[in-house]
Write a structure and sequence with these properties.
It holds the Pfam family Ferritin. The protein is mostly helical. It contains five helices and no strands. It is elongated.
């Protein structure tokens, strides 16, 4: 006789309450939206940068959008590990992001300034979730957030130096 397969999914019991998991996932969804928006902006600028700094910026932007692309999966998978569906559409990201859409066709140094602002916005989103993750004793999310903060703050600093005289 064959054993019956269970089709029900067991309740998540990882030591974080459902309320906290839901709240953390909501914050991570905002981080995912900011990260995706930043990725698109950076990739767009990589394609469309012109001027005397073309090669330097083109290569720099490629390194940045590649790092951001890889981070998207890490953030989305953390949301899923917390038992929540990760947002995955432009409409979702548009509602959740804190980064304004780029208007027009910015010049090279305008691109750099826009990326500084978007990197800092993404860092603020990550930082805003730290205390909730800490209170919930959610070390994996705290680790993810501190790693993302390190990347976004360092990238903003490096970009910002290009705007100095």
């Amino acid at each position: 006789m064959k054993a019956k397969k269970s089709t029900s999914i067991s309740k998540i019991d990882i030591g974080i309450s459902e309320k906290d998991r839901t709240a953390i996932a909501a914050g991570l969804s905002k981080l995912l939206a900011d990260s995706f928006t930043l990725y698109l902006m950076t990739h767009n600028f990589h394609w469309n940068v012109t001027g005397p700094m073309f090669n330097s910026l083109h290569v720099m932007f490629m390194g940045q959008y590649t790092e951001q692309w890889n981070a998207l999966d890490v953030i989305a998978e953390r949301i899923r590990a917390l038992g929540v569906k990760a947002p995955g559409s432009y409409a979702d990201y548009e509602k959740l992001t804190t980064i304004a859409a780029v208007k027009g066709e910015p010049k090279a140094m305008e691109m750099v300034a826009l990326l500084v602002s978007a990197q800092e916005a993404t860092a603020r989103t990550a930082r805003s979730l730290l205390s909730l993750a800490d209170e919930a004793n959610d070390q994996p999310t705290m680790d993810l957030l501190t790693q993302r903060l390190d990347v976004h703050e360092k990238t903003a600093w490096m970009l910002r130096t290009l705007l100095e005289d």
